[in-house]
Amino acid sequence: MSHDSTKKIIIVALGVCLVCSVLVSTAAVSLSAIQSANRELDRIQNILQAGDIDYTGKDPIELYKESIKSIVIEIESGRILDESEYTEEIKPENFNIKKLASDPNFGVTIAPENDIAQIRRKPKHMVIYEVMSKDNTVDRYIFPVWGFGLWSTMYGFIALNNDLQTVEGITFYAHGETPGLGGEIDNPRWKSSWKGKKALNEQGEVIMEVIKGLVDLSNTNSNSQIDGLSGSTITTKGVDQMIKYWLGDQGYGSFLDILREEGNNEEV
Description:
Blueprint: H1 3-50, H2 60-67, E1 68-74, H3 97-102, E2 107-109, E3 121-123, E4 125-132, E5 138-148, E6 153-161, E7 167-174, H4 188-192, E8 209-210, E9 225-226, H5 233-247, H6 253-267
């Protein structure tokens, strides 16, 4: 083979490689945008599901815009931030729980004795979603929650009625629990069993339990108990501890206390 032939082969090969790399890069960028849009749609659908908002036959994104108001709170104090206090990182549209929790400027380490949800770190702020009624009052609140199960961190949303006691819905959008066992946290029937249950009492204390086994309806505490997941004791305990953590003093307790106090003042 002549030197010129070898040179031409190399040039052609390099040209093919260059064209392929451009095509792969273009496809990767296009897919990334699609994946990002799908993740956002999934997030919105889960928020609507947790809030017991039916989007069948409707555009979930438009319904979300019409029905949901996002607010940012400081977890420790429960204070609602004014929009002028938002940084790019904590704007609702940019909020990333994992990224903010691990960032030393935006996250905080949880003391081991308080870390019943086994998450180690959490953001200093959190986005909460208010479901607005037609008269522009808050009908219910949707809270992001997460905690460790058997194999994974389970991420979801739980909604409370504006009585600050009654569960309106719950959903999980990311986890790695065993299908058919801990993975039953995705079971629509199990999730629907949460609706109407009491998560907190009038004093704001968490009374909800995800128990081992089935709820005995004759038990006086049955209205605050949830059936455990069959064959998955550790995942059941993980969900139980997650709810106790996030609705308690270490989670949204301060925010709920503020809402409760405002409600009491309005009644006077």
